[in-house]
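Why does residue order matter? Because the sequence determines the fold. Keep that principle in mind as you read this record.
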Amino acid sequence: MSRARPPWLVAAVLCLGLLTGCQALGAPGERPTEQAMTIRYHSGPGLMNHLELADALGYLEGTGIELDYEGPVAGGPEILRSVATDQTDLGVGPFQGATARVVSTGVDLTAVAATYGSNRAEGRTFDVVTLDDGGLDDARDLIGGKVAVNTLGANAEAILDTWFAQEGLTQDEIDDVALVPLPGINQEAALREGQVDAALMNGAARDFAMKHGNLRSLVRDVDLVGDYNGGSYVLRDSFIEAHPELTRTLVGVLVRAIRFEQAHSLAETRQVFARWLEEHGRSDELPVLESWQGNGIATPGGVLRDEDFELWTDWLEAEGQIDVDDLSIPDLYTNEFNPAAGERSNR
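Structure:
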């Protein structure tokens, strides 16, 4: 694939590459443990943040961990940049392919547990959504059209390019499909107002939009690649090395919250988290929470697997973003701190 990369994404990758050199020249190290106990993080819309769910469930009590929410961001590349540059500590849900791309530039980041995924059993999928009466039936109908995605160069673009290739579109035809970056909460309006022809939607934003009717799905990601963990919680290697016990505690509470989501009804999880949002002055997020149908993590406790990353390496190499021969998949993630790692990783 050779769709042009947006300037901001190119700049972000270059910045991350420069960061490696800065680290080698003796950039400031990790904060001391007493400060590091306050976990700084961004989050994206539409996903359950298991760190916040853990707090809502009381799992942080006695751990010494405090939360410092730095606000929402649009997508994984920005989340990774923030973690890599020590503006935050925990990356919440960047796409596995984006993590692989950044690590391939020499930035030391490691995925420690899955944040979201797609699986048929729960119906948690990415869908290419279009108007019911829009006259679109397959990938070829999108040539010359526009598709909304939450961010460029991440999960959504990888899914679409995979679909286009499987449908037999040539490279020129793929390049003739314009991808329009829009936050999930704005995609429905853009679709209904005719600003885009389709939208790659998932999670609460998709479910909320579908409730309003006159929309249908052209294809699901699981129809193309099967069940998978699409994004992870990510830490700096230097954070892990400086604070191994804190890392174990942090991943442990994340996994406990993931297990809670996987073992309890959506209504129970929504109720717990809704109360937390109200207590933390974020009641404006309640309408999205009401449509949340689960994060769709494909493995018990968010255990990570080679295949969660291997799924996208061919796409990344075709995009010219990585050299597969220079990338070690096992170096992208660790289950060392995940207490669920000894269990079966597939449901």
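The first strand starts at residue 38 and ends at 43.
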